[in-house]
Structure formats: C-alpha cells, structure tokens
C-alpha cells in the first residue's frame, strides 16, 4: 500500500501547486446586479418602464431552483458510484489516488477550476494480526480474521486489495489473558462490572458494537485496566434478517473496521495545520497521547464473537446484555475463556489529497457556501462515503448546466472532496486549520453529505438557524419513493423523535466547521443506518440491490443539497432564522436545571443570557420582515449596505458561540453549545462543558468540582451574550 499519492495529471485542468484558488477580495466592492422587477401598481410600473425601457430582468432565483430540480440524473449518479467503488480505496493508497483523479477530472470536465491540496499526515496500517481462543478442555483455536466472499461475487478479485481487518491507531503488542464480557463497552457497563465484583484489570475485554464510538469502547476498557479489547458485531444488532447477498444484513464473517482515534485531524499536528515544514510531534509522541487507545485491540465478526461468548463463564449477564434469538447465554467472566491476541501496526506518514473546486460568485465572491463529502473508504465504500461522492458529482453536473443557462451564484460555492475522514476527519480538519482566518471571516455555511444513501427515510441535522431553510427546501423536492409526496412528507414519516438532529457528534466532516470555528452547518442523508457498515460488503451490489436500486434516492439527496446551496448562495438576504436557536438553548438550560436540583448551583446567568438572545432573535426577525417587505415594493431603491450589514450579523452569530480556550481538557473543541460527548464521540452533546463538569463532580463530589460546574455555566452565558450582541448589531 503506497504511502504517497501522485497528483492527477495536469491535462485535466487541475493543479496541485499551492497557489490560491479561492478568489481574493477585490479592492472595491463588486458592482451589484439589478434586482428582478416585482409586480407594481399599474401607474408606478408604467412610469418605471418608461424610464427603464431598455432594462431586461434576469431570471428569478426560483427559475434556477426549478431548473436544478429538473436536471437530476439517476444514470449519472449510478455511473459515478460504480466508477468510485471498483476497488477498495483506503486513505493513502494508490486506489484512493485513482478515486481522487476521477473526482478531479469530472469537475474539470465541467469547466470548474480544480486543485488538489495534499497533506502529510500520520496514518496506520496493519502488519500482523492473530487471535486464538482457548479454555480448560478446549484446545487453542485460531480465528481466521477474514471476511469471506460469496459465490458469484463480482468483486471477489478486488476484495484481495482490501486492508485486513483492524482498528486504526490501536497499540502494537501481544496479550494472553482471560476474557470479560462488557456489553456495549460504555462507562455504565464497566460500572456494572465493578458493582458485580468482576475485575477487568489485566483482562481482555469483549464488547459489542452498537451504542458508542469504537474508540470510546477501547478507551473505556483501557481506563478500567484492561490489557486489550476485542469488538464484535452482535447478530442481535447487525443480523436481523437475511444476510448479504440474499438480504441487507451483515454476513456471519462480516467485520466492522474503523478508527479508534478520539481527536480530529493529523495526530502529529494537534491544533494546527499539517502544512509543509510545520512543527510536528514525533510518531511516538502522537501515539502516546490520551486521544489514542494505547492498548492492542481488534475487531471480529459476529460468528467469532459468539464463539468467544460460548466459553466465557461466571455470572449470567443481565437480560439487556444478552443476544437475540438462538444466541448462547452471555456470561460476564472473567474466563475461563482465554484470548491470545497480537497486533502489530505500521504508523507512517502518508500523503492525502483533498480535491477543491470553486464556482465563483458574481456579486459577493468573498462569501462562501461550502459543500463537502469525503472520498476515502475502509473497503469499497458504496454507502460510506461514495454515495455522497456520487451525489456531489451529479450535483456538480447540474450546476454546470445552470451556468450554460446564464446562472452565476451571487456568492461563491466551493465543492470539497475530503480525504482520510475515516481515520479521524483528517482532510477536512487540516484544510480548516490551514484556512481558519479566511473561513471564519467569509463562510456563510457548510453543507455536509457523508453517506448520502443508506436506505429509506430522510434525515437531517443542522445548527438551528438552518432549520426552517431545510424544511422549506424539502417541500420542493419530490420523494424518491412516492411520486405523490414531497421529501418533507417522507421526512415527517421518518422522524422518530426530534425532526432535526444537532451537530454535536464527531461523526463526520462538519466537525471542524461547527465545533472548531463556529460555521452554520447541515448534514443530510437518506436512511439512518445499515448493517454492513465499514465491512467488505459495502459495495455497489449492496447499493444496487438494497440501498437504492433505481438511484432515485441519490438524486433526491443531490436535489436537496443543491437547493439549500442555491438558497444560501443566491438569496440576497440570508435565509437564517435564529428563533429556533433560542428554543434549543432554553431546552438545554432546562435539562441542566433538572440535573442540578438539590445542588447549590445557579443556572440564572444562563437563563438570563438566553432571554437576551431571544430578544435579539425577535429583533432581527422584525428587521428581516421589514427589509423584505420594503424591497418588494421599492426594488429600485436598493440599500446594499443595510443588506450586507444584516447578512454579516446573521453569518457571524454562530462564531460567537465559540471560545478561544475551548472545552476543559479538549481545547480543539471551541464551540460551547455543541460538541461530542466525552464518553461517546458519536453523541451530540448540548452544553458539553457543563455536561463534562457535572459528570466529574458527581464522581468526585468535592466543592472544587461543583465550582467547576458553576464556572462552565458562566462561560456558556458569556458566549450567548456575545452572540446576542452580534445578532442585534449593537455595542454595550
């Protein structure tokens, strides 16, 4: 597996040289186009026409929105997905360089300027793995640690290129010890083992996927004193029906591989960009940080996990720790089962490539709408992530067609295809860190699509000021599964609890934009989960048979993605609504208040700051209504400076929720409203600093720890007050 990737050839119009691609701010404000005429009273309209008889209005934005929706192509999406998933393409591999070249050449063929931005980063690959099981009366039995292909598998030959099953950044080492079963590997699971008198120290922990990030499972095991960890896919969660290729569920030998790194970006450049000649930690220093697992660990299949469970003794595990129908009785251990585990990894500096393309805005080229998806995959990546890559390229084709019809976005649209997301959001994080000052001053919003299509149902997460825009856009997009319904109707039927999720989790490339620099962001997908996640079976056949047989869902995601991008790029007044944000802040404060009942902590500063923010949101809503009404009836009396000032406030309010010191113990996470849970990187936590402080105070129960809770409440109140000032546009 190559550790470097050559740039795509020059003849496709791309460049890997470090010259600026994003347009510079012109020395004078760009000339603004004339607004489209709206219906006027008859006499006024006649007078206006007499004075401006040579004026021919450009098509309204709604024209281009309708045109965009009409241009969707199932065949284009399918062709791109097939091309991208011919081979497994792990970050740093030659196959991923080929995938980068496909993205770059496609965008260049549409006459978009393209560049490839490389970074040298720390990645890890397996050199050797072995795992054997023994117990009294049972001879040692080695596990094959291989995902089987099936008869007639068209990708059987290419499967040989897939990386052997492993957990990225696991420590190298050998361990032979008794096994303890730890359910989903959450803190509460290890607390239960302690309460039952089950000693984890020096043992091999067996846990199952399904509730928390795999890196948290390994680190929770480490913190409990375990010598190693093994994670398996339980049939109860991943094999609820027919296994692939006969059904969509995980085959018995399927293994979920993935990263165990708890931070974001290149491990050798924490808090700064991995640019050429930069300061770096050594590989040994990077691997020794608390963000690394620091114990050996391996993933195994459901079949292998069940074989281990059959030989574990001790007390019977609780009912909610048990498997599904037909599973053996799960016991806690320790032993008598013994696992002999060896993992040797190769931690190496490798070159990754982000592909960046720009559609320059006409009136406000220095304002950016950024669309992002990652390209690298653990195996073939038909769902994760290349359903999103295919949607991005299909959407780019539509943008090209709009340009042929005369469209130029008001603001600049940037299309980003990230690399090494699977290792720890590496490509997007390095780009954000390298361009931090530009992005914080110019970016309107970031729109992420990771895995575009898992299956049926529509799902969205966002920072709250984008909620109404997402709802409005979804009403214009047709449901891919019912021609008589809109995507909004499908969304309503899909929602199990809250309609729109929040972007506090660390599961995809929105993380650096929201949690590090405070950019309004959204993330959308069709389907919520799928059983063959990160396994050999996430291939084009699975997608064609089960995920999206007609590729209509790919087109719907691209339509929604593009429509939101058009609104953000072309609406003269940004379509943000902060009223929902005030509600979200209040709900979070209520939760904190309930958790602190009976504790001498006051949430009054937080409640007062939220009330101030609510007033600011109401004020800006009134301004927006007045300005929009005024512009409808008097379009020739434009006030561009007023519009610009209001848009700047709408754009910059999210930045005010960040704090330069970041979260305690997690300084990269600057956003004090949304960040990952300390014990589950996938979990979106509201007021994460307060949550961390409460958890620590409940454990230590000291006056100092409770003062830390109060301090975090004051910190949140301060950033909300700052956001109120930005939104209202006034000084104290």
From TrEMBL:
GO biological process terms, semicolon-separated: meristem maintenance; proteolysis; regulation of developmental process
Biased composition range(s): Pro residues: 1-10
Catalyses which reaction(s): Release of an unsubstituted, C-terminal glutamyl residue, typically from Ac-Asp-Glu or folylpoly-gamma-glutamates
Enzyme class: hydrolase
Cofactor(s) annotated in UniProt: Zn(2+)
Top-rank taxon, per record: Eukaryota
Record bears the keyword Mitochondrion: no
Region (Disordered): 1-32
Domain PA per the UniProt entry, residue ranges: 176-257
Entry keyword ATP-binding: no
Subcellular location: Endomembrane system
Entry's Gene Ontology cellular component terms: endomembrane system
Enzyme nomenclature, EC number: 3.4.17.21
Primary location group: membrane
Database matches in CDD domains: M28_PSMA_like, PA_GCPII_like
An example Gene Ontology molecular-function term: metallocarboxypeptidase activity
Keyword field: Glycoprotein, Hydrolase, Membrane, Metal-binding, Metalloprotease, Protease, Signal-anchor, Transmembrane, Transmembrane helix, Zinc
Pfam families per UniProt: PA (PF02225), Peptidase_M28 (PF04389), TFR_dimer (PF04253)
Recorded topology in the membrane: Single-pass type II membrane protein
Family matches, as InterPro entries: PA_dom_sf, PA_domain, Peptidase_M28, Peptidase_M28B, TFR-like_dimer_dom, TFR-like_dimer_dom_sf
Family recorded in the similarity comment: Belongs to the peptidase M28 family. M28B subfamily.
UniProt protein name: glutamate carboxypeptidase II
Organism (species): Leersia perrieri
